[in-house]
């Protein structure tokens, strides 16, 4: 399959730019999505975006990505630390998945140290800020 990416952002990431800017920066989700679309396009890869605050909607998006996208870049937000359902959805598809966290979750509260996704992800980008999304796209380009 030709490379194509679905970028998924989970709960509260729709508030980027206004939410805890000292942790997550000043760029809005729209800014971030456009950066990712442009970055991927520069590498000849199409990238679609999806954001939801709802666990089941994210599960649906992952299921529906089957046979459509070769790769997923996902920042599952707080569901990273709780969602077996998102883990199982990822296990149920063939797409290669890269996990991104804007902040360094390991220097934050202990409940953010465990991810249900990291051990089944192809790669994990943590604490790089917004450039972490672009690094994940670069990794897909380099595969
Ligand atoms: C986050 C880290 C999560 O712990 C948190 O719940 C988020 C954002 C990040 O990008 O740093 O919503 O995934």
What does this structure look like?
This protein is of the alpha/beta class. Helices cover 34% and strands 19% of the residues. The protein contains 5 helices and 5 strands; from the N terminus they run βααβαβαββα. It has helices at residues 21-24, 29-42, 55-64, 84-91, 131-142, and strands at residues 4-9, 46-51, 71-75, 96-101, 123-126. It has a 5-stranded parallel beta sheet, with helices on both faces. Helix 4 links the parallel strand 3 and strand 4 (96-101). Helix 2 packs parallel to helix 5 (131-142). The longest helix is centred in the first third of the chain and has 14 residues, at 29-42. It is globular, with a radius of gyration of 14 Å. The structure holds 1,3,4-trihydroxy-5-OXO-cyclohexanecarboxylic acid. 1,3,4-trihydroxy-5-OXO-cyclohexanecarboxylic acid is lined by residues 12, 75, 77-78, 80, 101-103, 105, 112.
Main attributes of the structure:
5 helices; alpha/beta; binds 1,3,4-trihydroxy-5-OXO-cyclohexanecarboxylic acid; five-stranded parallel β-sheet; 5 strands; globular; 143 residues
In short:
The chain has 143 residues and is α/β, with parallel strands linked by helices.
Q: How do the strands and helices of this protein lay out in sequence?
A:
Layout: E1 4-9, H1 21-24, H2 29-42, E2 46-51, H3 55-64, E3 71-75, H4 84-91, E4 96-101, E5 123-126, H5 131-142
Parallel strand pairs: 1-2, 1-3, 3-4, 4-5
Helix pairs in contact: 2-5, 3-4
Bound molecules: 1,3,4-trihydroxy-5-OXO-cyclohexanecarboxylic acid (DQA).
1,3,4-trihydroxy-5-OXO-cyclohexanecarboxylic acid binds at residues 12, 75, 77-78, 80, 101-103, 105, 112.
